[in-house]
Write a structure and sequence with these properties.
The chain is mostly helical. 77% of the residues lie in helices and 0% in strands. Helix 5 (146-174) runs antiparallel to helix 6 (179-220). The chain is rod-shaped. The mean pLDDT is 85. This is Primosomal replication protein.
Length: 222
């Protein structure tokens, strides 16, 4: 080695001190939403670091531990090859952290794009399902908005209530109706029952869409 062992350890510790300041600055600039976004992402080969997520300070601690182990190997006068391998591993870790400092913004952008693509695919699938459902007369954009979809449900519930009231009124009139008007009134009642049935089907459909709408949003908020 060009450097003696004491110079080697001193150089590595100074290198770590400089990198630690960069990592502190990096971690402090991460927004809570960015930390959450990269929470489960593996940013390193597992042979280098045991570390998930956006924050890099745990890597600094692992490098510090590696330098400590190297000091013990030197004190025990282990074979030069063993010490050289430890030095290479430490340098590989330095390189990996420096690369991670530069790629955090890329990882965040990539993760956001993945989420946006997933939401777009879900919306497209829901829209295709909606068009094939027989309820295409309900605007598809209504079913993608939490406020509008509940308003649509309330509207159909009110319609169903009015249909039920109208049917009850017509059935009460049917008892005192002249025979000439009875057939017409019975046809009107039948038509109103059909409208009520279609309205109830729409209510069930909207309730199913509310559950489908809320499911991906609940998973995003975990």
């Amino acid at each position: 080695m060009v450097l003696n062992t004491s110079q080697l350890i001193s150089t590595l510790k100074n290198q770590l001190k400089t990198l630690e300041q960069e990592v502190l600055q990096h971690d402090s600039h991460l927004a809570p939403s960015q930390r959450k976004l990269l929470l489960d992402i593996e940013r390193f080969n597992q042979s280098l670091f045991i570390q998930n997520g956006a924050q890099l300070m745990p890597c600094i601690e692992q490098i510090r531990s590696s330098i400590g182990q190297l000091e013990k190997q030197i004190a025990l006068k282990l074979a030069p090859q063993t010490i050289a391998l430890s030095c290479e591993r430490i340098q590989d870790r330095f390189t990996a952290v420096k690369r991670a400092l530069l790629t955090t913004s890329i990882d965040i952008k990539s993760k956001n794009q993945q989420r946006a693509s997933k939401r777009a695919r879900f919306a497209q699938q829901q829209n295709q399902s909606h068009q094939a459902s027989g309820f295409a007369w309900i605007a598809s954009n209504v079913l993608q908005n939490s406020h509008e979809i509940y308003a649509e449900l309330n509207k159909h519930l009110n319609w169903a209530k009015k249909f039920e009231q109208k049917i009850a009124e017509m059935e009460s009139k049917l008892e005192n109706c002249h025979s000439a008007d009875k057939i017409r009134l019975q046809n009107d009642i039948l038509l109103m029952h059909r409208r009520l049935g279609k309205c109830r089907q729409a209510i069930s459909y909207i309730e199913d869409r509310i559950q489908a709408f809320e499911r991906p949003h609940q998973s995003h908020n975990r």
